[in-house]
Amino acid sequence: MTLAVQGLSLTRGARAVLHDVGASLDPGTITAIVGPNGAGKSSLLMTLAGLLEPGEGSVALDGQPLADMPARARAIALGYLPQDGDVAWDVAVETLVALGRMPFGDNLVEPVEKAIAALELGDLRNRPVSRLSGGEKARVLLARVLAGEPRWVLADEPLAALDLAHQLNLIGHLRRSARGGTGIVIVLHDLALAMNHADRVLVLDHGTLVGDGPPQDALTPDTIKQVWGARVEWLGKVGRYALSLQDSL
Amino acid sequence: MTRANLTFAALLAVLFPLSLLAGRVWIDPLAATGPQNAALILMELRLPRAVLAVVIGSGLGAAGAAMQGYLRNPLADPGLFGIAPMAALGAVASFWTGLTYALPVFALAGAALAMVLLALIAGRTASGAGGGIALFTLAGLMIASLAGTLTALAITMAPSAFAMSQIVLWLNGALTDRSWNEVWIAAPLIVAGIGVLTLAGRALDALTLGEDAARSMGMEPGRVLVLLVAGVGLTVGAGVAVAGIIGFVGLIVPHLVRPLTDRLPSSLIVPSALAGGVLVLAADSAVRVLPFVTELRLGIALSLIGAPFFLWLLIRMRRGVL
């Protein structure tokens, strides 16, 4: 069940956001999309989710173009977690997670309970979202996506507002979902998180894909220097790398 | 039946018969002999008026709940789409032309024109990512503003002082002297409108998480917009056509209902319809028994309650309570 983009170009307003991006993503893995601010990371993720229509090229799920899929079928296959995490109404955790069943139009309890258990939210199920900490809210929002049992989870900076412990906790949950066969695509700002936890990294710069591969190959000091303009070196060993900033150019 | 539905249905069941008894002439159901023409007062004056109050309040309540869900904002009101001001403008045109017997038709035509304009705008804003709802709302506000300006123009240039006073009086909505005719005009349209709004319920729930997340969950912006415009157009347009402008009901009612539900928009629409019926019926009963020389206009009475309520909401929002 691959999710593939081919020759993808996208303009938003008068601005070219993505240019000739191509990649075929495999389920059961974590793919990180990285790049400087304005590189087109969120736009690529939204295009993968079928929320933006490419100007040129196509996005296909298992060979079927997303543009040809009914909205409901697409929603069942692709779970999208937006960056802002905004919740308009002060609903209880359980109610929010159950919204994940919306694409199916059912009220199945089991997948909702499974998502609540997977994200360790049992004790919080009746709590209104306004009374959750940042880390708890991030877990609840991910649980909402998982309650739909999508084949792909596409998350836009799900770790951005979290402290280190909560980041590792959430990454752990994503890794478990990937082990279960779900494809995970996440936009990340923190290169060390991408280096240590992704199976594959896509590096975007000004809307162009300039790196694609396992983290050690995609995030070389040379690539980082070229894209971010910073001289760095990786310290540590596989799975425990830390980024050391030498100086900025 | 949910707790909210049960609560407001019970309130309505108690209030409705009481409302039939209340008025300048009180009717004592236990008295052996009632006032003269009691049956006539009940069947031809109070019953249609009470039914109309419930029906109009239901439409406004349901439209308010749907609008707040759609705009993801507890301060939203059905008037934001510009449908009520356009319906009012249509009604004002009937005074202007002297064709007041066709007032509901003119008002419904005004509401329909607003719906067509909104549908045309929707075609241009509903596609693409993000921002569609904000653009659409601004367009609705502009329609409301234009209709308000044209109404003001019509008042200042009214053909006669009588027409001018009629327009001004009518704009402050009321249910005085309404008959079964108005019930037959408004009720089917409002009931249909509430039905249309309930169809949008699940999509409005998805909007709780924002426009992009909702689209990723299968919400189709164009379909939701059509349902909203049709539902609000029917409920509010028909209400204005028979009773004039009755504000604040759509704003207040969802707040009364929300604590009794799981707070998702779909859970609010039907109980808000019931609560809207309760509120307008209670307010209309109250204006009938208040000891004023002339009956206080219902629209003014609800605004007197609604404006302080709105301020209280703002203060609560500032404190982060909502």
What secondary-structure arrangement, pairings included, does this model have?
The complex is a heterodimer of chains A (249) and B (322).
Chain A lengths: L2 E10 L2 E11 L4 E5 L6 H8 L7 E6 L2 E2 L5 H7 E4 L11 H6 L10 H10 L15 H14 L4 E5 L7 H16 L3 E5 L3 H7 L2 E6 L2 E6 L1 H4 L2 H8 L1 E6 L6 E7 L1
Parallel strand pairs in A: 3-8, 3-9, 6-7, 7-8
Antiparallel strand pairs in A: 1-2, 1-4, 4-5, 9-10, 11-12
Helix pairs in contact in A: 4-5
Chain B lengths: L2 H19 L16 H34 L11 H15 L5 H23 L6 H25 L4 H11 L8 H20 L1 H6 L4 H6 L4 H23 L5 H9 L7 H25 L8 H21 L4
Helix pairs in contact in B: 1-2, 1-12, 2-7, 2-10, 2-11, 2-12, 3-4, 3-5, 3-6, 3-10, 4-5, 4-10, 7-10, 11-12
**What structural class should be given to the helix and strand makeup of chain A?**
alpha/beta
Helix proportion range of chain B: over 70%
Mean pLDDT of chain A: 93
Residues in helices of chain A, as a percent range:
25-40%
- Assembly state (oligomeric): heterodimer
In angstroms, what is the radius of gyration of chain B?
A: 20 Å
**Biggest sheet: strand arrangement of chain A:** 6-7-8-3-9-10
How much is the radius of gyration of chain A in Å?
A: 18 Å
In what range is the share of β-strand residues of chain B? under 5%
Largest interface: A-B, 35 and 26 residues
Strand count, sense and closure of the main sheet of chain A? 6 strands, mixed
How many β strands of chain B by DSSP? Answer: 0
- Report the total helices of chain A: 9
Task: Fill in the keyword field for this structure.
heterodimer, A: 249 residues, alpha/beta, four-stranded antiparallel sheet, 9 helices, 32% helix, 29% strand, globular, B: 322 residues, mainly alpha, 13 helices, 0% strand
